[in-house]
Heme chaperone HemW
Amino acid sequence: MKSLYIHIPFCNRICTYCDFTKVLIKNQPVDDYIDALIMEMKTLEHKDFKTVYVGGGTPTALSEAQLERLLKFISENFTVSGEYTFEANPDEVTTGKLDLLKNYGVNRVSLGVQSFNDDILKVLNRSHDFDDIFRSIDHLEKIGLSNYSMDLMYNLPGETFNDIDTSLRYVEELKPKHISWYSLIIEPHTVFYNEIKKGRLKIDDDNKEAEKYLHVMDGLQAIGYPQYEISNFAEKEYESEHNKTYWRNDNYYGVGAGAHGYINNERYYNVKPVPHYIKSMNENHSAVKETIELSETEKIEEEMFLGLRMTEGVSKERFRGKFNVGLDEYYKDELSFLKDKKWITDDGRHIALTDSGRMVGNEVFIAFLKSS
């Protein structure tokens, strides 16, 4: 086992686009949640991990005392041999919290920037502003936590190509080690979803979104950020090893309310509501889970969906090693069809998406479905 995901579902403010498992931290049983989280982590069979990722919600919404308690437990009970990441909001990155992260071995920070435009940040209901971004990065650099990823979004309400260009200029100036730049996806049960249904909010159509995506890809390439996944950009040594665990369809643990895991061909999903999760841990010493055992066909399909997100694509050698069948043999007709469409490339070792294939990713993925 090489990866562990830890979910902190608390935020100081709820963003208008977010559908992750999260609640406002005020008046929440945060200490009880950490008790339950520690209890769940104690049940894990493996104690040595290549990557640990603490996400949310917002882990930096925790107080310094709560943060230290979590960090101390991880330090005393697990070995993290590689990438150890904490998600953080720019306005919450205090010197005290950063010192704790550094002192307890965290070696990577994922900073939720989203936009450099204060007006757009207000529409997103982000808790930080432009100045917080630079202040937080200055703190990170000063204490030697310079391995940070910057999360950005495009296709945002009111966003122009000039806004993207402005973000690209700041990326070039700040030189983060890693960039995640995602398109806004309107999810049900979010503020944005309701605003669009009521006709009070508009976002660009698919064609304009595709233009912006190409603009982001070309812009990052031009300033030295190779694309290694559909929405992620970095030099080889700074690619997210934890996220590659997901894209390579490897096993990982997920702990916390609403966390997902994948162990022994079984995907599991912890109960989402924080009180239910705490109650489950206190009463049963385990989280209530929904589990889905994957068939061989479903495992193969996931191997393709996830692997094709990466620029390197799906390894034929790895495919045969996992499924005891050749990729060319298993998907002979599908590969022929997709090559004719010029949506995939085949270098003899990997199947990968072309640039045009990225634009129609869902159509490519549907071609690999055999279980439906």
Remarks:
- The chain has two domains: 3-247, 296-367.
- The mean pLDDT is 91.
- Residues 206-222 form the longest helix (17 residues).
